[in-house]
Design brief:
About 25% of the residues lie in helices and about 20% in strands. It is built from 7 helices and 10 strands. The protein folds into 2 domains: about 110 residues, 3-Layer(aba) Sandwich (Cobalt-precorrin-4 Transmethylase, domain 1); about 120 residues, Tetrapyrrole methylase, C-terminal domain (Methyltransferase, Cobalt-precorrin-4 Transmethylase, Domain 2, 2-Layer Sandwich), CATH 3.30.950. The longest helix has 12 residues. The mean pLDDT is about 95. Strands 3-2-4-1-5 form a 5-stranded parallel beta sheet, sandwiched between helices. A 5-stranded mixed beta sheet has the order 6-7-10-8-9, sandwiched between helices. S-adenosyl-L-homocysteine (SAH) binds next to helix 4 and strand 10.
Length: about 250
């Protein structure tokens, strides 16, 4: 069988790619992460597809499905939330597939940080404010390398998006506040693109209280940075006085 790692998108079943949906429709076996992938997506599967929820499985159990079916015809879809390349734990699976000579492909997905910036109606890179987006997490059970400590990353004051960290909002605030300053705007997006999506906004100095009051403890992203306020330079790309490859300046 061929294995496809498919990005399921952030939740809304319409936010899977067309390629992802087409592959899901053809799949003989589907392994999906029940804790984060919408069960609505399984409606795209054929009636004969065998479906496994990986929520209670470990790597060995998932890999066993790949190995046991390696000589059969067909398609196995491993459905990962958001985009599989972001905190997706696909590398170890791909390494095993390569070892066993099983061919595989990756189909990207819409990551939750993209769905969240859409929910916030927010551009993450604004001229004169920040031209960098840091996707990171606070050190938890999975330790981050020392040079990626939040306090160090914060020195750039770039737009920062924190995955897997909302349950430690107080530590996030304590690490970031000395560098960004307490008045820097923050936003927390809970379950972006799901029907119970929730957004809270405030300032870094109130982050922990905001999260506590909204009773958000999981499935959320924290956004920090001055892009979240409205003061910025207009884009050069659409500036009438700016010449670029496709357009001469008109002013
Ligand atoms: N590969 C995924 C991330 C998996 S890690 C992606 O690209 O989005 C799981 C973390 O992602 C969660 O703890 C949460 O921080 C974030 N997350 C996943 N889905 C989310 C959603 N719909 N809204 C907000 N955050 C989400």
């Amino acid at each position: 069988m061929n294995v496809f790692f498919v990005g399921a998108g952030p939740g809304d079943p319409e936010l899977i790619t067309i390629k992802g949906k087409n592959t899901l429709e053809k799949a003989d076996i589907v392994i999906y992460a029940g804790s984060l992938v919408s069960p609505e997506l399984l409606k795209y599967c054929s009636n004969s597809a065998i479906i496994h929820d990986s929520a209670s499985m470990n790597l060995d159990e998932v890999s066993k499905i790949y190995r046991d079916n390696r000589n059969k015809e067909g398609i196995i879809v491993r459905l990962h939330t958001g985009d599989p390349s972001v905190y997706g734990a696909i590398q170890e699976q791909m390494d095993l597939l390569a070892l066993w000579d099983i061919s595989y492909k990756v189909i990207p997905g819409v990551s939750s940080f993209q769905a969240s910036s859409a929910a916030l109606k927010q551009q993450l890179t604004l001229p004169g404010v920040s031209q960098t987006v840091i996707l990171t997490r606070i050190s938890g059970r999975t330790k981050t390398p020392p040079l990626e400590d939040l306090a160090l990353l914060a020195r750039s004051r770039a737009t920062m998006v924190l995955f897997l960290s909302v349950d430690q909002a107080r530590s996030v605030q304590e690490k970031l506040q000395p560098e960004y300053g307490g008045e820097t705007p923050v936003a927390v997006v809970y379950r972006a693109s799901w029907t119970d999506e929730k957004i809270v906004r405030g300032e870094l100095k109130n982050l922990a209280t905001l999260v506590e009051d909204a009773q958000i403890s999981r499935q959320a992203l924290i956004f920090i940075g001055d892009v979240l306020q409205s003061d910025y330079e207009k884009s050069k790309l659409y500036d009438a006085a700016f010449t670029h490859g496709y357009r001469e300046a008109s002013l």
